[in-house]
Amino acid sequence: WQTLSERVNRVAPSATLAVDSKAKAMKAAGVDVIGFGAGEPNFPTPDYIVEAAVKACRDPKNHRYTPTPGLPALRQAIADKTLRDSGYAVTPDRVVVTNGGKQAVYEALQTLIDPGDEVIIPAPYWTTYPEAVRLAGGKPVFVFAGSEQGFEPTVEAIEAVRTPRTKAIVVNSPSNPTGAVWSRETIRAIGRWAVEHHVWVLSDEIYEHLSYDGMRTVYIGAEVPEVRDQLIVLNGVAKTYAMTGWRVGWIVAPTPVAEAVTKLQGHLSSNVADVSQQAALAAVEGSLDAVDMMRAAFDGRRRAIVAALNEVTGVTCSAPHGAFYAFPEVTALLGRPLGPDGSVVRTSSELASLLLDQAHVAAVPGEAFGAPGYLRFSYALADDDLAEGVRRFKQWVG
Ligand code: PLP
Start and end of every Aminotransferase class I/classII large domain (predicted)? Predict the structure, then answer.
């Protein structure tokens, strides 16, 4: 609409949220939809975390504004957790608590990017990165690595798109949407390349605790210590502790960046809800036992969904080693008759739409992640739903 700003008109809506809300609306209308759309663990938030929030709610001192960058105890706990998990020490003044990992991404880009600056985004990518770059006036530059490369880019491909305007690169391993866990060699090479060329690294580590088959998340700040002065780690409690709706994320960055992010946040949203911060404190300070339990459940579902998807004619799914997404290739389904009425689709986007309408199965098309020809299935849903959803997909393909 012409009176809206150019800035907002340029932004594409979140495709993942769109699929999820269409699926939820169909469910509300009484349709039995199986939703593989949302990246949302189906577990309840662990009890001790909920109890910490209940206790915090009852204490009126927690009904006020907290410092903008977060409760001092939570910033300290995030610094301690960084040492525990990533293996290097940071001071709490480098930490800013944000309204979810999504706000951390947005604020980091608003803080670093000037109009015309380029940000290298390995594709397939999480759908928010390019839009957040555009909202900052920057230009996303994509480097694609498909399933044949294990969805892992080479530093040579990254170097090939570097220009004098390259300001930052996004690293997201384990990855949404592919579930790829990048190798030590790749992470190390990207870290060294960034140091050599003075490029900021935005390392989104939100799936750090969800990896399988003995694969471990490799932390770029640990692998390449010299990168820490140009590293912004983005993280949050959503995926690790089944806390998507609590909206707590954070940034760990060099102190001047953390201060600039705090200044921005002071005009954007102030502090994160105190009660949510107290819950996050219990989560981050606590053990990883609940996470181990959830990871074991995700691992079982991962094996089940990969096996089941590979039995669907025209679908090829490599085993992801992290996060909770399967990202099968579906190009063999394009251009051939599908479903009870033999409909023909040309794109994975049309395929996802038809699958939802006819088989009542919600998956997100690869187009949302810069990867046409793929579909993303989140397997963070109940075992029975998972089996039933893929059974419907298989039957629908015929
Ligand atoms: N980063 C990645 C790669 C994600 O997949 C998500 C959520 O889907 C987020 C960040 C943001 O998480 P939240 O804003 O819920 O903390």
Answer: 32-392
